[in-house]
């Protein structure tokens, strides 16, 4: 285990930790959370021995192998596959010694080294590295490209793959989901769930933490506070503690009221779509955990748009792409006031192409784009950070957009994004990535858009800012189109999805859980096609061989049939449970149920709700286990 005992750490004039203690138990998966600049990355450096504490001690078992994800962008000219395999330093050491032994004809040593190679599964290293690359969204053709030929985001993915390739007892990952799309994030989630070692994770993605971690370490007031359970459990525990203390009671009640109002407004529309029902459940849960965020340093909202057109924007028979390259064909999309659209699809399918076209950064190759007379676009993307003037202050950035705005008005506005005092008027050159992202977002909000186009808005933001953004988007009265790997944000801010795949952008009339299952199916199909292609190239086409293949296929179907049938039955059961849960939650929405006379009925419904949720979780767990089994048999 890792033990921090009375650790104090100061960087410059800022105290990050003061007499802080914590224990990370062996085999546990902990998320390290806290605001930007609270010391999360510095704690990683302490553990790695790259920093020394001012006082106290950090104890780590000497025999532990530690792997971590490098934050600097890869500059190596080595092929991507070799770059990933380099993460296994023990493998590379044995290979080097083997080359020398073979050159010197040291046969006994050669035999010993081959045995060592076998013990660390070295003969399968190439296959394991390819699986990591494919899981993170690379193609087979990418494996031989030089690492430095990829863009910055893809090089960060290479660093992540290299860390996963490294055999480890402790894995340190700092914001691993930045630069990942939802498909790659879901793959990484499963990989980490199966990881045998101890994990310490920094992430702003609450759904990712919920799925992977069994403990939370919160850096707050220069102390380390540990919580058992995932991020949702942390929120509940912290909400209870803060509510008991009656801290900022007025603010807490106001926030709960705002979320309640939004739930009521949305409930009227949440009667048909499965994804709407799923979102309603998330909103109800957000209401319960609102007190956990009452002391958040962020408190902002989107101003009510001054005017609307209907539709705000329309594309008919659109052909989208670059030059002669068509990415999306025959797009028909109409965005109205109040539209809330989430874009789904694999990396490279065309999501960013679509949002850039909506933002007029790309022109249509063909088709017609019509915008309303009163359209006011607010566009956030990662390149907005690069466009910031590093020598200007946050206040000056806003002053340039509204020269007549009063200084106090600008300062009050920036305070909602936690730019207080001197920070509001000093140059941003030394701001962190998270602080620059907050400023870029503040600039978008300041311009009072009626259509928001958001491309991965939560990258670089901490959990509290992500929560504040989610709540602000809930209250936004304009239209939203968003790309995000943050499932919590999507569940709580959009009510329809467009799936960008195979050159089309079409409605996806289901929820994110269904999308996750769709991704798994697509992976199985792709894996199956790859295997079939590989086998076809390696086998002859004789009649006897074809007969053998047919027999093998029949045997495979026979093996898979019971599992496939079981999966279908579980899916049917899950649908029935969801229907029953929806009915109960509709009943629980009746305010008269909470009167004293209905106490017994309320308790009965709450008990039944809890039993149904438990049954649904168990069914979902079975579903994943059976799908894993199905995939294992299919690939054998």
From TrEMBL:
- Residue ranges occupied by any ABC transporter domain in the UniProt entry: 2-246, 310-527
Q: Sorted alphabetically, which SUPFAM superfamilies does this protein's record hold?
A: P-loop containing nucleoside triphosphate hydrolases (SSF52540)
Extent of Polar residues compositional bias: 527-544
Task: Give an example GO molecular function.
Answer: ATP hydrolysis activity
Q: Where is the composition biased (Basic and acidic residues)?
A: 545-558
Q: Which UniProt keywords apply?
A: ATP-binding, Coiled coil, Nucleotide-binding, Repeat
User: Where in this protein does the record put region Disordered?
Assistant: 526-560
Q: Which residues form a coiled coil?
A: 560-622
Which CDD domains has this protein been placed in?
Answer: ABCF_EF-3
Record family assignment: Belongs to the ABC transporter superfamily. ABCF family. YheS subfamily.
Q: What is this protein called?
A: Probable ATP-binding protein YheS
Species the sequence originates in? Dasania phycosphaerae
């Amino acid at each position: 285990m890792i033990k921090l005992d009375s650790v104090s750490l100061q960087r410059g004039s800022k105290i990050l930790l003061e007499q802080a203690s914590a224990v990370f138990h062996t085999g546990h998966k902990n998320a390290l959370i806290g605001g930007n600049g609270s010391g999360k990355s510095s704690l990683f450096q302490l553990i790695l021995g790259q920093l020394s504490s001012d006082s106290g001690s950090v104890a780590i078992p000497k025999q532990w192998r530690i792997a971590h994800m490098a934050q600097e962008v890869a500059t190596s000219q080595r092929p991507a596959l070799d770059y990933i395999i380099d993460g296994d330093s023990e493998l590379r050491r044995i290979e080097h010694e083997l080359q020398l032994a073979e050159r010197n004809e040291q046969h006994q040593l050669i035999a010993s080294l081959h045995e060592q190679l076998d013990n660390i599964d070295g003969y399968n290293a190439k296959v394991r590295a390819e699986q990591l690359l494919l899981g993170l969204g690379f193609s087979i053709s990418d494996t031989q490209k030089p690492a430095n030929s990829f863009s910055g985001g893809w090089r960060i993915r290479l660093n992540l793959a290299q860390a996963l390739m490294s055999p480890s007892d402790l894995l340190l990952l700092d914001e691993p989901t930045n630069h990942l799309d939802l498909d790659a994030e879901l793959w990484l989630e499963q990989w980490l769930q199966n990881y045998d070692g101890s994990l310490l994770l920094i992430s702003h993605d609450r759904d990712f933490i919920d799925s992977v971690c069994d403990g939370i370490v919160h850096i707050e007031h220069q102390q380390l506070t540990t919580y058992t359970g995932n991020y949702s459990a942390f929120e509940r525990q912290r909400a209870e503690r803060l509510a008991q203390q009656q801290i900022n009671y007025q603010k807490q009640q106001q926030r709960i009221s705002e979320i309640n109002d939004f739930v009521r407004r949305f409930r009227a529309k949440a009667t048909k779509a499965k994804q709407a029902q799923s979102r309603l459940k998330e909103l109800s849960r957000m209401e319960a955990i609102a007190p956990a965020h009452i002391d958040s340093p962020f408190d902002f909202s989107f101003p009510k748009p001054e005017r609307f057109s209907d539709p705000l924007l329309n594309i008919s028979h659109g052909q989208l792409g670059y030059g002669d390259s068509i990415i999306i064909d025959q797009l028909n999309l109409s965005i109205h006031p109040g539209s809330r659209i989430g874009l789904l699809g694999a990396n490279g399918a065309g999501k960013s192409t679509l949002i850039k076209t909506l933002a007029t950064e790309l022109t249509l190759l063909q088709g017609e784009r019509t915008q309303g007379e009163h359209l006011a676009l607010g566009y956030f993307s990662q390149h907005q950070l690069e466009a910031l003037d590093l020598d200007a202050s946050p206040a000056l950035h806003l002053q340039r957009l509204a020269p007549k705005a009063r200084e106090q008005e600008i300062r009050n506005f920036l305070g909602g994004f936690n730019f207080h005092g001197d920070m509001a008027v000093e140059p941003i050159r030394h701001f962190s990535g998270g602080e620059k992202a907050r400023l870029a977002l503040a600039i978008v909000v300041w311009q009072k858009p009626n259509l928001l186009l958001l491309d991965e808005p939560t990258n670089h933001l901490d959990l509290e800012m992500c929560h504040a953004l989610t709540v602000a988007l809930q209250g936004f009265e304009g239209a939203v189109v968003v790309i995000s790997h943050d499932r919590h944000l999507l569940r709580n801010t959009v009510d329809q999805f467009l799936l960008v795949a195979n050159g089309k952008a079409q409605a996806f009339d289901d929820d994110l859980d269904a999308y996750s299952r769709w991704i798994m199916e697509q992976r199985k199909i792709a894996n199956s096609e790859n295997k079939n292609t590989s086998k076809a190239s390696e086998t002859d086409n004789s009649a006897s061989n074809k007969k053998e293949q047919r027999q093998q296929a029949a045997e495979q179907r026979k093996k898979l049939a019971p599992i496939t049938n079981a999966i279908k039955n579980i899916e049917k059961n899950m649908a029935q449970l969801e229907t029953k849960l929806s009915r109960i939650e509709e009943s629980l929405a009746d305010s008269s149920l909470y009167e004293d006379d209905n106490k017994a009925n309320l308790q009965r419904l709450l008990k039944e709700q809890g039993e149904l949720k438990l049954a649904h979780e168990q069914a979902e767990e079975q579903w994943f286990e059976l799908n894993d089994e199905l995939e294992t048999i299919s690939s054998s």
